[in-house]
């Protein structure tokens, strides 16, 4: 769990948050980002698209509104399973509410966690959508301060702190990789490798068990927007009508 009703609990967990009047703080990576933002997702490639922008690491913002403390924590995720993992890591069972929302492609969910229906999860999800970010989750922890905010006040508080939190995050563009392969004769390997390097292909492997003398299957991964350019370049330089195999 993160935080508590006093500053000592926050420091004990080693997760500093930013006060409303101070600079916003990037949280240490208690959850490995690689495990949250895995290329192996339960979502389909169609649901997440060929490219998306997400946040690099967890960030947190703290605000006090009419004596209630709101702590928003955002992090990158890859699926519903990693969203559940993120929630279990950052929620505080001692807080009044642990509201949350996440978006992974066209898959999205949110929770008011006891707040009046539509006053927490929905405005949080709207803030995520408005940010243009994908594969991201935000958890807002609220400690009730004794003054009710009303329906409109809650919507503004949860949506506002979510938006502020996401604005502080460092973002990056992620492009999906396409697994490709092409069968070539040995004399063409040099030309093929030159083109693979120019397109920054990854995981390049050779398989000589093709059943044909003097040939090998070269497999590799390349950014989705480099596929057509790479095919054309290899065919042009090799001057052969080569057949490419592709899968996402």
TrEMBL record:
Origin superkingdom: Eukaryota
Leader sequence residues: none
Cellular component annotations (GO), alphabetically ordered: cytoplasm
GO biological process: regulation of translational initiation
Domain Impact N-terminal: 66-166
Family classification: Belongs to the IMPACT family.
PANTHER family xref list: IMPACT FAMILY MEMBER YIGZ, IMPACT-RELATED
Descriptive protein name: Impact N-terminal domain-containing protein
Upper lineage: Eukaryota, Viridiplantae, Streptophyta, Embryophyta, Tracheophyta
């Amino acid at each position: 769990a993160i935080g508590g009703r006093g500053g000592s609990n926050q420091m004990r967990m080693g997760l500093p948050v930013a006060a409303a009047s101070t600079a916003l703080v990037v949280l240490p990576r208690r959850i490995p980002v690689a495990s949250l933002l895995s290329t192996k997702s339960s979502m389909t490639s169609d649901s997440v698209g060929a490219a998306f922008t997400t946040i690099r690491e967890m960030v947190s913002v703290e605000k006090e509104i009419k004596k209630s403390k709101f702590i928003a924590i955002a992090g990158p995720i890859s699926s519903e399973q990693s969203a559940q993992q993120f929630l279990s890591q950052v929620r505080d069972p001692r807080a009044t509410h642990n509201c949350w929302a996440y978006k992974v492609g066209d898959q999205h969910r949110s929770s008011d966690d006891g707040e009046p229906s539509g006053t927490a999860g929905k405005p949080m999800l709207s803030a995520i959508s408005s940010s243009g970010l994908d594969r991201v989750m935000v958890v807002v922890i609220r400690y009730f301060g004794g003054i009710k905010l009303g329906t409109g006040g809650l919507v503004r508080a949860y949506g506002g702190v979510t938006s502020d939190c996401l604005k502080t995050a460092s973002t990056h563009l992620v492009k999906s990789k396409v697994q490709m392969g092409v069968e070539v004769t040995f004399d063409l390997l040099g030309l093929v490798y030159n083109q693979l390097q120019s397109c920054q292909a990854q995981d390049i492997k050779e398989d000589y068990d093709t059943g044909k003398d003097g040939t090998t299957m070269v497999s590799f991964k390349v950014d989705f927007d480099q596929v057509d350019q790479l095919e054309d370049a290899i065919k042009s330089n090799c001057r052969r009508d080569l057949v490419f195999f592709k899968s996402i």
